[in-house]
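Supplementary Text 2. Reproducibility record for the structural model of the 157-residue chain.

All settings were left at their defaults, and a single model was retained for analysis rather than an ensemble. We include the record here because the model underlies the residue-level annotations in Supplementary Table 4.
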Amino acid sequence: MIEQLAIFFSIEMIYLWLNIGIIPIWFILMFFPHSKVCGIFATSILPILVLGSIYLYLFYYFFISGYNFFDNFNLYLGLYELADLFENEAFLILFWVHFLTINLFCGSWIVRDSQKFYISKFLIFFPLLITYFIGPLGILIYWLIRIFYARKIALLD
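Retained model, structure tokens:
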């Protein structure tokens, strides 16, 4: 039974389910940010727990497979070392889960913060879309919109 689960939850299958599973959450964030469904499935801790569990499973899977996690620190040595790491399937899927989780967390924060300042859902659509694809740029665009609604620039908010 466990072997069948391990065969089903291959790295390729996990990658596929991650990409399929994250799209409905972003859809809810972009089109229904003020709904109760968004509060339950998108801005709650639930998706972060699921993605964190997948990350933990992958970490365990690669640990028992003998993956050397200390080689991941080579990414700080230079751009070519980082490129070499991205050729490794284990590093790549761990990075992808990390990337999806951080972007989703930022998108959830944008929705919750926009509700605090009563920012229209139409105004946050574009920053959410950009955050989905290019995380930091979407947060910057949202922050610029937020300045006008909060009527202040606060670096510690």
